[in-house]
Specification:
This protein has 162 residues and is of the alpha+beta class. It has six helices and seven strands. A seven-stranded antiparallel β-sheet has the order 1-2-6-5-4-3-7.
Length: 162
């Protein structure tokens, strides 16, 4: 009986987690799953706040108080090349999925693009961070709300270009 209850809970959790991802993130994950050196990770907002709290980043912890879920995938640039795909092509998928570009940051060879998909029905958004460098692409999808007024610190090393 315990096994049936645990199994049922896992199925419900899996269904809700699958629906929680944006079409863009699902597309990226399906396209590259099984490739060598592609890693995917998913965490609750509670875990993200705990990690920031332990690292001493109280300003950021307050800014992400309403984050519900975070998903991350790292993909080597070589995997894009093997499939004949590009990061620029993926950004078109993001735009079709109603993500709008908020900002573009450069730090030496790294490029960080921040996208936002607003949700009119609920009080939570989806943020998509696309981090590119010469070796890999890191995609981070965040579901919830981030208070932009609390993120004004720690940006002295970034150059904003939009």
């Amino acid at each position: 009986m315990k096994f049936a209850a645990v199994y049922f809970i896992l199925i419900i959790a899996g269904i809700s987690a699958a629906k929680a991802q944006s079409h863009s993130f699902e597309t990226l994950k399906k396209k590259f799953s099984g490739n060598e050196n592609v890693h995917s990770f998913s965490a609750s907002g509670f875990l993200a706040r705990t990690v920031l709290w332990l690292s001493g980043e109280q300003e950021f912890t307050r800014a992400i108080q309403e984050i519900r879920h975070i998903r991350l995938i790292t993909i080597p640039i070589s995997a894009f090349e093997e499939k004949g795909l590009s990061v620029r092509g993926f950004t078109k998928i993001l735009k079709r999925d109603a993500f709008e570009e908020l900002a573009l940051f450069r730090n030496e060879s790294d490029l960080l693009t921040v996208y936002l998909q607003t949700n009119q029905d609920h009080d939570e958004n989806r943020y998509f961070l696309l981090i590119e460098n010469s070796h890999e692409v890191v995609a981070v999808e965040i579901k919830g709300y981030i208070d932009p007024n609390l993120l004004h610190t720690k940006k002295e090393n970034l150059t904003y270009t939009n």
